[in-house]
Amino acid sequence: MTFSDILRTAIFALRGNWLRSALTSLGVIIGIAAVIVMVSVGQGTQAEIDKMVSGLGSQRLDIGSGAGRGPGGGGARMSAASFFTLNDGDVEAIRNEIPEVQYVAGALRGNTQVVYAENNASTGWQGVQPEFFDINGWTIADGEGFDTQDYTSAGKVVILGDTVRRTLFGDDSGIGQTIRLGRVPFTVVATLKPKGQGGFGQDQDDVVMVPLETARRRLMGAMGLPAGAVMQIALTVGDAKDLGYAQGEVEALLRQRHRINPGEDDDFNVRNISEIVATRTQTTRLMSLLLGAVATISLIVGGIGIMNIMLVSVTERIREIGLRMAVGAGPSDVRRQFLAEAMLISLIGGVLGIAIGVVGALLVGKFGSLPVALNGQVIALAASFSIMTGLFFGYYPARKASQLDPIEALRQQ
Question: Domain MacB-like periplasmic core spans what residues (predicted)?
């Protein structure tokens, strides 16, 4: 029998009981669609993780200021001096004594009402040092950044994030205009290029930047901050492999500078961004494996359905098989015929499953809260699964049919 003969015979056999064939392929349809949707969701989530890594920086440490507890387990200290435990001296010490550090900057932050004419916005402000922009990947869109005098003289100048700029000025840049942060007037000297949504879903452009000393004197002067206090120190290293070593050096240096005795808790906390990202990546990978396992089980169930129906078909068509063998068909011809029927069911189910899976993935991406990354590799993977399902689960029934004794088969009623 030629390939066209086998295909024509398989189509004729399936059309003879088309409803049963359609119900059999339903398991493959569901399995393939599940593979496409779930793998697409897993890849989309991984892409979001990669975006978060690039946004936060895999070579970065964040050092937070805050009081710890002594060895006696006393209560948390609440004075400003004990809460703002980091200062400019710590920043300079890290810069000068740890050569692996590439950029380092201290920062203060808070929230305020920003007003221009009849427009206003509630936003966050950050008081920063020069290297803060390099650490966080901020670039100037319009205007000029802060100059040295702005940092040293507490100049009343501000750089606007894109969201705040659009709220206050619409399509204009606002360069040279005077706005108020709280009750303090500031001159807009620059705007930042938009960065969009952050890895944790926040609007990164909803922010304004002022020099660090300006933040101390103009925005937080009433709090009675210790001299040179900062809330946070951010740093990056030149090589990601040095991050763990740099973290240990930073912790040891700060404990020494803050005179923390052995056994006492730190009055600061160090957050390793790469460790957070690695934990989240591992969680995502496990979720993807779980989704893939569920989809694979659906496909296996569909394959078992094909095997079951093909075994039933062999039993029902024993006399037909005997007749074919009696007129010259060999075992290989019978085996190829039944294998073709099984693979045809699987392929039809695979095509429909791919179509449903692609539509389903697009709908999840559009209306659902899960990120979806649909690409050709996912579809190719689904098509491969479809072919392998028909081949694997159709072989045993086909082999069983080919091993029938023609004489015994012809005796069947």
Answer: 21-252
- Cα 310 to Cα 26, 240, 394, distances in angstroms: 15, 57, 7
**Residue 333 and residue 1 in contact, taking contact as beta carbons nearer than 8 Å:** yes
Say if CB 268 and CB 63 are below 8 A apart.
Answer: yes
Cα–Cα distance measured from residue 373 to residue 362, given in angstroms and rounded to the nearest whole number: 9
Distance CA 214, CA 310 (A): 79
- Average pLDDT estimate for 154-160: 94
Contact call for residues 54 and 197 (beta carbons, < 8 A): no
For CA atoms 56, 219, 232, 265, the dihedral sign is negative
Model pLDDT for residues 303-362, shown as the tens digit of each residue? 787 777 777 777 766 777 677 777 666 777 777 777 887 778 888 888 888 899 889 888
* Entry pTM: 0.59
Contact 116, 174 (CB under 8 A): yes
Please tell me the distance from the alpha carbon of residue 163 to that of residue 146, in angstroms, as a whole number: 20
Element (H, E) at 43: helix 18-56
Contact 155, 243 (CB under 8 A): no
- Report yes or no: 36 and 361 within 8 Å, Cβ to Cβ: yes
Residue 220 in tokens: 């937080």
Which pair of structure tokens corresponds to residue 91?
């920043």
C-alpha to C-alpha distance for 321 and 299, rounded to whole angstroms = 29
Token pair in block for residue 85: 């435990």
Six-digit token string for 377? 């590799």
Q: Which of 313, 390, 315 is nearest to 351 (CA)?
A: 390
The rounded distance, in Å, linking the Cα atoms of 328 and 119 is 90
**CB 392, CB 299: distance < 8 Å:** no
Q: Which two tokens stand for residue 94?
A: 């890290």
- Judge whether 220 and 212 are in contact, CB under 8 Å: no
Tokens representing 400 are 């069983």
